[in-house]
Amino acid sequence: MSDTDLDTSLRVDLRETPGGIVGYDALPDHRIKLHIGGPVAGACRLHNFLYTRGDLDILPAGITDVWHEEAPSTSVVVRMPPVLLKRTAEEMGLPPERAVLDQRHQFRDARIEHVAWALDAERRAGFPNGRLYTDSLGTALAVQLLAGQEAAAGTASTQGLTRPQLRRVTEFIEANLDGDLSLAALANIAGLSASHLKTQFKRSIGLPVHEYVVHRRVDRARGLLLRSEMPASMVALESGFSHQSHMARCMRRVLGVTPGEVRRAG
């Protein structure tokens, strides 16, 4: 089985601990932990510490860890399959041995934190934006984790997608707009890696690929609301939204109006 056949999806969990001993067993995935609660003092074998909101920890695959905290603590834990990091490293031009993470505790990185917050927001909302959005965040997170590594020069094209590539990708999006699109599927259509598709699609269209899909879904929903008597809940599903309120949020953000206002205007 090749790496392309393996699951590269992230898992995002909320972890609440009551205070006392905090333990992390070894897992096959890398874990990125973001502290989201109030300040919590603690200690490990080497030193005392004070976790504050936004502090990050990295626990590489196969690593166990344990420490003591003096109060309840809340964290978001993102689990990343090593195959995703490996694939992203290859796309960045890094040798395979660079696709590793060092164990780190209580550090700050605004870009990693931003992606972790976005993943947590998606988790709390019930993952309404589908796999494509989560795939995009996963790739962005992997890139940031590897950002300290020196990528081979000239691995990324400075051009956007070719016209045939762009046509294939956009036609595939239109044909599957009501489905759960994935970054891997779109990259395969373009004949590119996932990270290169993200970069070159934005250069060609001016929008990130997941945002382009949202705009196309909003446009389809608008047309259905204007031209049919289909219930709004069915319009949402036909347009690829997870539910009616998700459609309403996206429509308000993109068009500045609600589905009801669109229908009344028709």
Write up what this structure looks like.
Helix 4 (163-175) packs antiparallel against helix 5, helix 7 crosses helix 9 and helix 7 (209-227) packs across helix 10. This protein has 10 helices and 9 strands. It starts with 10 loop residues before the first strand and ends with a helix. The chain has 266 residues and is of the alpha+beta class. It folds into 3 domains: 3-145, Jelly Rolls, CATH 2.60.120; 163-206; 212-265, Arc Repressor Mutant, subunit A (Orthogonal Bundle), CATH 1.10.10. One of its GO terms (molecular function) is DNA-binding transcription factor activity. This is AraC family transcriptional regulator. Residues 167-265 form the HTH araC/xylS-type domain. InterPro entries: AraC_XylS_family_regulators, Homeodomain-like_sf, HTH_AraC.
